[in-house]
C-alpha cells in the first residue's frame, strides 16, 4: 500500500489527516520492515519530540484495523508494516534480526485441511521466522542491493 492509498483509506473511514498520522504512514511507506511502536518513536523523535508511545500505539492499532498496516508478534512485541500491495493469498518469511520480509508463494493449509476432516477452518496465519542472507552471514543488514520488500 502506498502513502496516498493509506491517506485515502483514512479519509474514507472519517479519520482526520494529522501531521502525526502522516509521519507514521510515511515511515511505513518508505520502510518494508516490521517496526515496533518504539521503532516508530525513535524514527520520528526529531520531527515529533512530544509524540507519546500511547499515541503511536493508538494510531498503529487503528491503521491495522483499517488494513493499512499488517501486524505480527516478534520476540513478544507487536510489530507492524505497511499492508502488502500484492493481490492474492500469500505468506511471509521475516528476518528476526533486521525485520526484512520476503513473500512466500505457498500455503500449508491444503495439507492442514486434509489432516482435519470435517473441521471448518475460518482463518489462519503462517509466517516463517529466521535470518536473511545478510544477517545470517554477519554482514551489515543494510547492504546496498538487498532484497528488502517494499510495501
Helices, strands, pairings?
Elements: H1 3-12, H2 19-30, H3 37-44, H4 53-65, E1 69-74, E2 77-82, E3 91-95, E4 101-104, H5 109-115, E5 127-130, H6 133-136
Parallel strand pairs: 3-5
Antiparallel strand pairs: 1-2, 3-4
Helix pairs in contact: 3-4
Question: How is this structure best summarized?
Answer:
With 151 residues, the chain is of the alpha+beta class. The protein has 2 domains: 80 residues, Winged helix-like DNA-binding domain superfamily/Winged helix DNA-binding domain (Arc Repressor Mutant, subunit A, Orthogonal Bundle); 66 residues, Dna Ligase, domain 1 (2-Layer Sandwich), CATH 3.30.1490.
Overview of this protein structure:
It contains 6 helices and 5 strands. It has 151 residues and is of the alpha+beta class. It folds into 2 domains: 3-82, Winged helix-like DNA-binding domain superfamily/Winged helix DNA-binding domain (Arc Repressor Mutant, subunit A, Orthogonal Bundle); 86-151, Dna Ligase, domain 1, CATH 3.30.1490.190. The strands form 2 sheets. A 3-stranded mixed beta sheet has the order 4-3-5, with no helix packed on it. A two-stranded antiparallel sheet has the order 1-2. A hairpin with a 5-residue loop joins strand 3 (91-95) and strand 4. Helix 3 crosses helix 4 (53-65). It is globular. The N and C termini lie close together (6 Å). The model is unreliable at 140-151 (pLDDT under 50).
Amino acid at each position: 500500500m502506498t502513502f496516498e492509498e493509506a491517506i485515502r483509506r483514512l479519509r474514507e473511514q472519517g479519520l482526520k489527516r494529522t501531521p502525526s498520522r502522516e509521519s507514521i504512514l510515511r515511515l511505513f511507506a518508505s520502510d518494508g520492515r516490521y517496526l515496533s511502536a518504539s521503532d516508530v518513536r525513535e524514527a520520528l523523535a526529531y520531527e515529533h519530540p512530544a509524540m507519546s508511545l500511547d499515541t503511536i500505539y493508538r494510531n498503529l492499532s487503528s491503521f491495522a484495523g483499517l488494513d493499512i498496516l499488517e501486524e505480527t508478534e516478534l520476540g513478544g512485541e507487536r510489530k507492524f508494516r505497511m499492508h502488502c500491495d500484492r493481490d492474492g493469498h500469500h505468506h511471509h518469511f521475516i528476518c528476526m534480526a533486521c525485520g526484512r520480509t520476503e513473500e512466500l508463494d505457498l500455503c500449508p493449509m491444503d495439507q492442514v485441511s486434509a489432516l482435519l476432516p470435517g473441521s471448518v477452518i475460518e482463518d489462519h496465519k503462517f509466517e516463517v521466522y529466521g535470518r536473511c542472507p545478510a544477517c545470517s552471514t554477519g554482514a551489515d543488514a543494510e547492504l546496498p542491493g538487498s532484497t528488502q520488500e517494499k510495501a
